[in-house]
Design brief:
There is one protein chain. This protein is an alpha+beta fold and 126 residues long. It has a single domain, classed as Roll (Pnp Oxidase, Chain A). Helices cover 28% and strands 31% of the residues. A five-stranded antiparallel beta sheet has the order 3-2-1-4-5. It is built from three helices and five strands.
């Protein structure tokens, strides 16, 4: 079996993507801090909205996003957890497309930790 030159390049790109996602939550200039989240509406139509990446665990490939429990996306995800995320890095000319299943955390230890870690200004509702 021969190893093509494309394999090391693909590995390098994957490692760079993982690193970019890891630092994105703390870097307002990171192109993948804001992602488009896709879900399915109650009427079956696709829905998309921008969300802020709040955390990334590279070892489990888990992305952390927060939402107001009253938001439509929460009900959509509860009904059908299949979601997609889309990001665009203009500087690198890279499009990031991810698909997976979302898990909602309400009133559990993960939700409590996320709430406690949020900046106070993010918690203010008028």
């Amino acid at each position: 079996m021969t190893t093509g030159a494309a394999e090391p390049e693909a590995d390098r790109i994957l490692l760079e993507i993982l690193d970019l996602l890891h630092v994105a939550p703390g870097d307002r200039e990171n192109a993948w801090r804001l992602l488009a989240l896709g879900s399915q509406g109650a009427d079956g139509a696709p829905r998309q909205r921008m969300v802020v990446l709040r955390g990334f665990e590279p070892w489990s490939l888990t992305l952390w996003l927060h939402s107001d429990a009253r938001a439509g996306k929460v009900g959509e995800i509860a009904a059908d957890p299949r979601v997609s995320l889309l990001g665009w890095d203009a500087a690198r000319q890279w499009q990031l497309r991810l698909e997976g299943e979302a898990r909602l955390h309400r009133g559990d230890a993960l939700a409590d930790r996320a709430w406690a870690a949020m900046p106070e200004l993010s918690l203010i509702h008028i």
